[in-house]
Amino acid sequence: MSAMDKMLDGMPMGMRNSVTNTLDNIGLMLSIKNPKVAMSMAPSAMRGMVMKKGKGSDAVKMHSGHAVHFDLNYGTDFPEMWELYRRAVANQWDGERDLDWSTDVDPMNPENCILPEEYAPFEGLAAKGVRFNAQEKQRFQADMAAWTLAQFMHGEQGALYAAAQVTESVQWLDGKFYGATQVMDEGRHLEVFYRYLDSKMNKVYQVNDNLFVILDDLLTDSRWDVKFLGMQIMVEGLALGAFSTMYNYTREPLLKNLLRYVIQDEARHVHYGVLALREQITEHLSPRERREREDWAFELALLMRNRFMSHEIYHEWFGGGARLSLRDWNEVVSEAPGMKAFRQVMFQRLIPNLEYIGLMSDRIKQHYEKAGLATFLGGRNATQLSGEDLIAENDALSAAGAEAHNNEAA
Ligand SMILES: [Fe+2]
Ligand SMILES: [Fe+2]
């Protein structure tokens, strides 16, 4: 036990939680090694973690100083992006027409549950002395599902604006065509996640502070390629990890279908992201700028791995802290089966893309190795994976999971 653990142990629970929180926020900034990266993230960390801008009001203003690149040439300049644009136009779907909103969804129904029991951290909680009865378990699972879906919705709103900003900034006309379809895609994603939450879950959680920091950071950065890297590679990777995990676990047919459509769109978004960034990073950036992007991506990857601990659920269920400390909660959640599955898919998608776009020098590779993420090097990148491939991969995983579940039950 460290000196800090001993000190925390001697404190009343409320104080212990607030110290854990503060150390956590300071730790976020101190863990960033590159001072330029720390400087660029600090204002967003301040707004998200300290001022809690994502909570408590109806709207928040974010100022971005990016330049609009107005094309005067109108010629074909990136055929692969034009291809993606045509494919995106042909594959537009309609959330109203293509999803069966008459499906009766009951978040408390164990038969068709949104997230099943094996997703939730009940074992870890029991090891910490927290035991739920059957009804509490169902309510907890429903809350976890509502929290996760709400974060999807907030992320989609961020994606909508980032896609619009990037469409203005990119220097390829074919990229602008493509970007226009992504703006439409993200608008539709926002529409369907909101509709699902509003009409089926009856509960909408506020944006998680860490997610807010990431969204604020990339929406306010004036450098289009940083915005692009943040949204098209990092956050889309995170989203694919989270959507795929939910797609694999859920037994609720409407949500499964909704996610199937969304995942196919997201595969295209990441594909576009790697095409644009590979050219930008390998052809147009200086070694110093490339190094800074590398560090930024690495920090963001750690942030995404370590910090989505559903604190909103903790405060709702264990608010006073009498039954469970925030520290124990963090430990339980990070080891939960659903969380592990999510991290696995997220990094399996993310790392090969960073490699493909030229942000995996030997220098930064060592950091990924230390963080235990090097196993994903050499995997298939977004140009080698279509939306159909992703769904097929997920369906195979779901089938294997269902079989294991049935064998266990037998
Ligand atoms: Fe999206
Ligand atoms: Fe997207």
UniProtKB/TrEMBL annotation:
Xref: InterPro entries: Ferritin-like_SF, RNR-like
Gene Ontology molecular function: oxidoreductase activity
Annotated signal sequence range: none
CDD domains: Ferritin_like
Highest taxon listed in the record's lineage: Bacteria
SUPFAM superfamilies associated with the record: Ferritin-like (SSF47240)
Protein name stated in the entry: Ferritin-like domain-containing protein
Organism listed in the record: Oceanococcus atlanticus
